[in-house]
Amino acid sequence: MNLNELENNWIKGFEKPVIIAGPCSAESESQMLETAKRLKESDADVSVFRAGIWKPRTKPNGFEGVGVIGLNWLKKVKEEYGFKTATEVANAHHVFAALEADVDVLWIGARSTVNPFTVQEIAQALRGIDKPVLVKNPVNPDLALWIGALERLLGQDVKNLGVIHRGFSTYQKTKYRNIPNWQIALDFKHQFPNIPMFIDPSHICGNRTGLAGVTQEAFNVGYEGAIIESHCNPDEAWSDASQQITPEVLADMINSIQIRKSDISGYEDEMGKHRTLISDLDFQLIELLSQRMKISEKIGTLKKENNIAIFQPERWRIIADYAAQKANESGMSHEFIEKVFKAIHEESIEVQNKIMINK
Predict the structure, then answer these.
(1) Contact, 67 vs 19, CB < 8 A?
(2) Which phi and psi angles does 251 have, rounded to 5°?
(3) Distance (Å, whole) CA 267 – CA 257
(4) Is 134 a residue whose pLDDT tops 70?
(5) Cα gap 50→275, rounded to integer Å
(6) Is pLDDT at 331 greater than 90 in this prediction?
(7) What is the C-alpha separation between 168 and 45, in angstroms, rounded?
(8) A GO molecular function for this record (predicted)?
């Protein structure tokens, strides 16, 4: 069996979109129960209550989770408020403890997904279970690693699978804590449409203000659910306080989200016309880029003959200024136009480099 053959009928047991919510970390029994109570009383339609029991931290001596005692609090949440429960597992010990506590949904975090040894250990500990296991994308933008983690789980007869898109780390500071890099997630979704995909706006944004927008973007492209951090008192949270929201704010956010239809029947003709036009424009873009790179080759030859350095900082400043001007004139996103011009400029440098190297 391969990943494309999985039925993943477990998702049919939930109303869509599937909302998984709860605090980043379990801190106390009272904190867990109050958050669960308010989620239950809210209008957020939360299906699964999540809480981190073990917390992987970047540096030592920080709060690394309460440990096994927190699993008892998760059990109480299930008993008193009827939620299914979910937590992250990062090694075999975590798996055995979570299964003993009858946690309903397990997820593998981004820092674990990036390490095949860790994923293999977790997969072997999970061998043959029928509980849903969700896999977050690895911290770095590597689609093969993400797929490989799922294949390791399937290799251990774990067949109820899903994935969580939580964004990717980057050295460059942006408005996101972890850049979404939507194309990687959509490439995954294209290859494995049968595997449910959840958005994790909390870790993508790293703040409260962008959560609704990122969640809406995900539902616009057909994600099945969202995993969102919600705390009874976010400002006092022991971890990731800035990205957690109250149950009441969560309810307002979820109710403001529009769920898009995946069925385009009745719109095929009109959609087809627009797509034909886009295909034609895409072809023209490729032709223009090809012409541009041929000019870059001539510039590269000229630089080589006259022993001129390829990268000219002043030229890049001119390009960046021009991109900003064109963005303003066209009403398009400055960030998008800058990305396009930067990619073109980097490819131009690569083309000229090849000419410099070849004797």
Answers:
(1) no
(2) -60, -45
(3) 23
(4) yes
(5) 41
(6) no
(7) 28
(8) chorismate mutase activity
Write out pLDDT tens, residues 168-218: 988 776 788 999 989 899 999 999 999 999 999 999 999 999 999 999 999
Alpha helices by DSSP H, the chain: 29-41, 69-81, 92-100, 110-113, 116-125, 143-155, 182-191, 201-205, 211-220, 247-256, 268-305, 313-330, 334-357
Q: How far apart are CA 292 and CA 207, in angstroms?
A: 41
Residues 65 and 146 in one domain: yes
Is residue 87 domain-shared with residue 169, that is, in the same domain?
Answer: yes
How far is Cα 194 from Cα 117, in angstroms, rounded to an integer? Answer: 26
Residue 175, C-beta contacts closer than 8 angstroms, at least 6 positions apart: 210
DSSP secondary structure letter of residue 22: E
- Find residue 285's DSSP bridge partners: none
Nearest to 162 by CA among 35, 24, 16: 16
Residue type at position 105: V
Query: Between 143-155 and 116-125, two packed helices, what is the crossing angle to 10 degrees?
Result: 30
**If you compute the radius of gyration of the chain from its CA atoms, what whole number of angstroms results?**
24
> Taking the model in full, what pTM does it have?
0.79
CB atoms < 10 A from the CB of 75, how many?
A: 14
User: What length does the chain have?
Assistant: 359
Question: Tell me, what CATH number does 204's domain have?
Answer: 3.20.20.70
The pLDDT confidence band at residue 34, using thresholds 50, 70 and 90, is: very high
Burial 164-203 (b: 16+ CB within 10 A, else e): bbbbbeeeeeeebbbebbeebbeebbeebeebbbbbbbbb
Same-domain check for residues 185 and 39: yes
Q: Residues of the chain with pLDDT > 70: what percent?
A: 96
- Which domain, by its residues, includes 302? 270-357
Task: Tell me if 30 is assigned to some domain.
Answer: yes
The CATH number of the domain holding residue 338 is 1.20.59.10
